[in-house]
Amino acid sequence: MSQEKFLEPWQLRAAFARSLSDMYGKEVPAYTTLLEVSHEVNADFVATHGADAERLGSIDRVTAERHGAIRVGTPTEISQVARIFGAMGMHPVGFYDLRDASSSSVPVISTAFRPIERDELARNPFRVFTSMLVPGDRRFFTRDQERRLDEFLAARRLFGPQLLRLADRAEAEGGLPAADAAEFLRLATEAFELSREPVDQAWYRELEGVSAVAADIGGVASTHINHLTPRVLDIDDLYARMTARGITMIPAIQGPPRWEGPDVLLRQTSFRALAEPRTFRTPDGQVIEDSLRVRFGEVEARGIALTREGRAAYDAAVAELDERAAGAGEAERQAIGREIWHRTFPVSETALADRGLGYFTYELLPDDGGGRAPHVVRAPVVYEDFLPRSAAGIFQSNLTDEGAKDAGQTGAERDDDWMAGALGRDLHDPFELYARQVERSRQATAATLGVDPE
Ligand code: OOG
Ligand code: NI
């Protein structure tokens, strides 16, 4: 019997991330520039910071690390997405309601598909932020628009039967033989390419009047990757280098300000969506060339995961910053941000751990041969998730206009249970995943030492 190579879920995930990245680089050349600059920033950071640079992930992991974003229309579509990502060991984590995440809002709810085990994350942390339209939300859509959206979405097919069959098989059998894996990866990548099919102009423009995101989801018969985001070790450096290359970035870095203390959660920025040629079918039946700006380049820096207490402090700090910096320029906003941060978070990582604001694991380091006895070190846990407010900011900064939301109308009830039902799977709570990782490290260290590391 021939020994055909068998690809496990993490190998499918790593290969998919690469294949999507190659495809997106061809479709959006500016993404390739972003990757180049990210590599420069990371290489320089490692050169100046040495081993410290790798405390929140090995340089191999960070170099390959990406997140993508996709947008779908219905529970059926998101449940199919869950099967495709399930084949790659990516599970739904977290519930994000972007409909009122900040002053800017978009008619979607979201989750992120990602690996949930520590060794799986270390092998390849690829994650995809996945948003689903809420046509039933009356603040955005009329009853008539909801009906037409439902009809349009029900008639389209984003993922073919062969792709879904292979996905189910991979999930059931813990991977795929090489030939099937290649077919699965080809079909999965193709499903997220930008379609050349003409777009119904009148329908697209009508939805755009509500929200550009609604048009991007419900105005076209296919889906596509919206952005792919590399991770950098110094986002301020990246921002400066991109600007020096003449690339216009959005005015701000979303998330925590730059400051002297430990980096927490997630900082993100992007360059504005680029005009891409698209064909439209006009109401009188003509096919014309025009362009759309929906896809952009984003980059992120990841910090330490915060506990519920830490996160509550973060949310309060952001709310205070918004209130006090309303109408202020970017420099002033940064200054106010740093002042609030100094009051909210300790400048030392040790204090962050001692005050129970961040997640830290315990590692037993062996005798280093240099006379140092085995000892326990506390290591920060990297934040693997997203921030709803930053996400809304990223969405909004790339929309051509604000869209229309009628705050007088009632929304549609959507929560994590509803999302789990749509997915047909468990929806993991990010805090529980981090806490479990900490607990396991504590138990492993305690078992070796015979005492609790704390
Ligand atoms: C998703 C926007 C959110 C992030 O990194 O927070 C996001 C989208 O534009 O579809 O990707
Ligand atoms: Ni993103």
From TrEMBL:
Transmembrane segments: none
Cofactor(s), by name: Fe(2+)
Catalytic activity, EC: 1.13.11.93
Iron keyword on record: yes
Domain of life: Bacteria
Alphabetical list of InterPro entries matching this protein: HGLS (IPR009770), YdcJ_bac-like (IPR047869)
Gene3D superfamilies (alphabetical): Uncharacterised protein PF07063, DUF1338
UniProt KW keywords: Dioxygenase, Iron, Oxidoreductase
Enzyme class: oxidoreductase
Family classification: Belongs to the 2-oxoadipate dioxygenase/decarboxylase family.
Name the UniProt record assigns to this protein: 2-oxoadipate dioxygenase/decarboxylase
Organism of origin: Myceligenerans pegani
Upper lineage: Bacteria, Bacillati, Actinomycetota, Actinomycetes, Micrococcales
